[in-house]
Each structure stands twice: as C-alpha cells, then as structure tokens.
Amino acid sequence: MLNDETLAKYYMTVGMECHVQLATNTKLFSGSDNDERNKSPNSVVSPIDYGLPGMLPVLNRKAIDLAIMAGKALNSPIAHVSRFDRKHYFYPDLPKGYQTTQMYYPIIGAGVINIPIENDKSVNVRIHHAHIEEDAGKLTHFGNYSLVDLNRSGTPLIEIVSQPDIHSSAQAKAFAMELYNLMTYAGVTRGDLYHGNMRFDVNISAALKGAKELGTRSEVKNLNSFKSVQRAAEFEFRRQIELLERGEKVVQETRGWDETKQKTISQRSKEDAQDYRYMPDADIPPVILSEDEIAKIQSTVPHLPPYYRESWKNIGLDSTVINALISSQLNAKLLQRILVKSGESVARRVGIWLLMAINDQDDGEDTTKAKGISITDDQFIELSQMVDKNELSSTAAKEVLFEMMNRSEDPRTIANEKNLIQVSDEAQILAIVDEVLADKSSEKAVTDLRAGNDKVIGFLVGQVMKKSGGKANPSLVQKLIRKRVQ
Predict the structure, then answer these.
(1) CATH of 426-484, one of 3.30.300.20, 1.10.10.410, 1.10.8.50, 3.40.50.1820
(2) Residues 109-138: pLDDT tens digits?
(3) Cα 69 to Cα 40: distance, rounded to the nearest angstrom
C-alpha cells in the first residue's frame, strides 16, 4: 500500500489524445447518415463503408469546415495544404483493412489552450496538432465470439493530440472538460459523451522527481467521461509507482478502463509508429485552402469559454461558479445577455441562481449533462428586481426560482400564488413590532438588548416574523426594533 511519502517522490506526466466526432450530416467519405444514435446495427452503412471493391471515397467538405472551426478554438493555425494517408493496421471493424487519416500533413497545427484549475489558477496545455480521420466501427464481445456494428465506421472525427503538459489527475479532468466546452461551443461536435462523440486516450507516466527523462508511459484508451479520465490517471499513476517501488519495469502498453472495478486492465503491447505503415492515399486529392477561406469560416465561430470568463471577471463570482455556468452554453449566453442588459449586480445574483438550478438538475453525472434553464432573461431580471425592492426575501426568491423552472410563469404571479410577497410598509410592521415588544414573553429579551446583548435581537425578529406570517421584511423589522429599544 502506497503512503503519501512514497507518492510524493514521483512526478506524474500526462499527454492526451481526444477523438472528436464531427457534427456533419453524412460520413467522411460516403453519403451514409452520420448519426448512429438509436439506430439498428449496420443500418447506416454504404458500400464505401463496407469497403467493397471498386468503391471510391468522396471527401465531405463540411468535415473540413468543422476542422477549421476547431482550429480557432485551439488557437492553432490551419494548414493551407493538408493530405490524407492510409494507416495499414488491422482493424477488425474497418472492412477495407486500413484507416484513412492524416499522418504527415494534418490540417490543424500546433496551438495552446488555457485550462482553469483549482483556486482561481490555470495552466497552459500545448496542442501538438489535430488531424482528420475516419472512425472505426464497434465490436461487442460475447464469450468466445464478437459481433461487429459498422454504423460508426467512416464517421468523421478530428484527433486532438496534446503535449505532455499535464501533471495531475485533476488537471487531466480539467483539460478534458475544457476541450469539451471548446468543441461544443464552436459547434464542432454534438458532444454526446454517452454515445462516444468525444473519447479520451490518456498517456500516463511516473518518474522520480528531478529525473531527466520521463518514465515509460501507458495509454488508457477510450474514456468517455471526465470522472473516468481523472480516476484512470490516478489509478495508473499509483500502479506504475507500485511497480517501480518493487524494482520492476513499467511496460509500454495499451490499457482499458474497467468502470465497475475502477481499475485499468492490459489490452495489448503498445505499437511503435513503424508498425502502422502509413502511405499517402492516392484516391483523395490534397485539401487546399486560402487564407480568406479560412478566415471566412472561422468568423462564424461563436463566443468561446475564454470570452465569458473575461467578461465575467468583475461581477463577483468565483471561478468554481463560473466554470459550472460555462458547462452549459445556453446558460452562458443567458447570463451574458443579463449582464449587458442589467449590469454586474443583477448578473451576479442571476449567476448564483443559475448555479442553484444546475445543481438541482444534476443527476450525479458529468457536467455535460447540465441543461439550459428555460427561464427567460426578463423573468430573471424581474425576480432580481423584486429582491432589490424587498418584495421577496432571498429564501422566497429561491422558492419562486424553482417553481419557475417547472412552469412558464412570471415570478410575481408565482410569488402571489405562494403568498411570498414581503411586507415593507413601515407603519404596518411597526404596529407588529410594538405588539411583540409589549408582550410579557419579550420582557427579558428587551432588557438584555438594552443592556448590550445584541444576540437576543434574533428572538425578537423571529417573534415579529411569526406574527406577520413570515411576510415582514426582516431587515426592516430589525431596524424598527432597534429604533424602539434604545
């Protein structure tokens, strides 16, 4: 069993590869439907996807456009000339016997993204490159036989390859989440993690701190949730340290993640580049792009997460709240509109309400499950104004908020229905205050308050609130009590 002292001797290094399925209508080289969700096995496959003899690929132009948009999100240059290659490696779920990819001339060059981490800090992770390729099909294993579903075969994707700039399991998770946000905000992918629209391969190594060389890496393949990225990185780091502490060597290999057992398992020895046998694809002409063409396509990319973080930095929300809000593009747009319409104070309050609504929707899964909130800008602003005017207490406003999530009704109507409107009429409240102060049960509290025991004011405020049916404005109640008890 590893102790903290042993763990502290080692340094984790992580590089990640992310497969991002592109949100095209059809596949990369055929006219087959590109949305395999809820489809019967092998039902959205063409002769090209089957790899039948004589079938020639036709490149999907939309996939190129989405890759160009992804390049902007990654702060990467787009190649004016990119080419496709054949990766001759046996894929049992790619019938033609090779994968079409971009080995030598990828479309997206080196970039960098800033990853928010804990305590308002961030880390830059460099992007080595990203290339377009076709996805493979899917195998389902049953004892001593396997079934193949080729619906996913030929799906266009970009593979984003990072530099080994990540040094903790928490950073690995944060990188995956930020990459998800960037790709979904840009409209590059549908972002359905459950159906594999984004999958993460995590390359992990452990080395003694101060070592000049990185340790031998293992690759954990096909992780499709942020939690599994973090847990797989942590488990694999500890597994490698245990081997090294026993004097054994870490083997370079490909491993899988067993979600049930929460551990990595060996799948195959890791191949070197020469094992893949890349060669130029003679059937697909080079992709040639002009600077004007690239700029025109990238001009359609909407605001990305860094824009919102910069815009919200002065509204008084901490980074944890901001990152939770950014997990939904709809909510980010909503809060930005409210900031522009009503200013920082209202935006701060609405931001906190949005976080409450997100948490109320949370089903224990990753933050990609967070939905857009179906409350309009004007309804949020009206609810905030009711708090500002002391018509609603903060507690009552929360109750109204959650009711607004369930039905399309304005906050005032809901507040009236629930009898939550706060009384702020000074004369009306003063009459109740006088009644409470004159009551024999309040005599000791009044005496103690006059003697300087400020804690007892809570009892007196509570008595007034009780007599008002909870409608009195608590801050006004306290003010009037202090005015009367001098």
Answers:
(1) 1.10.10.410
(2) 999 999 998 877 899 999 999 999 999 999
(3) 31
Residues in the chain: 486
Q: Tokens at residue 259, please?
A: 């979600």
Give residues with Cβ within 8 angstroms of 422, minimum separation 6.
Answer: 390, 391, 392, 393, 396, 471, 472, 473
Which letter does DSSP use for residue 406 in this model? Answer: H
Residues contacting 151, CB < 8 A, separation 6+: 36, 39, 41, 42, 43, 44, 45, 137, 138
What residues contact residue 201 under an 8 Å CB cut-off, 6+ apart? 16, 17, 18, 19, 219, 220, 221, 222, 223
- Structure pTM? 0.87
Task: State the alpha helices, DSSP H only, in 373-422.
Answer: 377-388, 394-406, 411-417
Q: How confident is the prediction for the chain on average, in pLDDT?
A: 90
Provide the token pair at 42. Answer: 């092998």
Residue 364: pLDDT band (50, 70, 90) is very low
Q: What are the extents of the domains in the chain?
A: 4-296, 301-417, 426-484
Alpha carbon distance 467, 465 (integer Å): 6
pLDDT digits (tens, 9 = 90+) for 10-36: 999 999 999 999 999 999 999 999 998
Q: What 3-state class would DSSP assign to 87?
A: strand
**Nearest of 35, 53, 52, 51 to residue 43 by alpha carbon:** 35
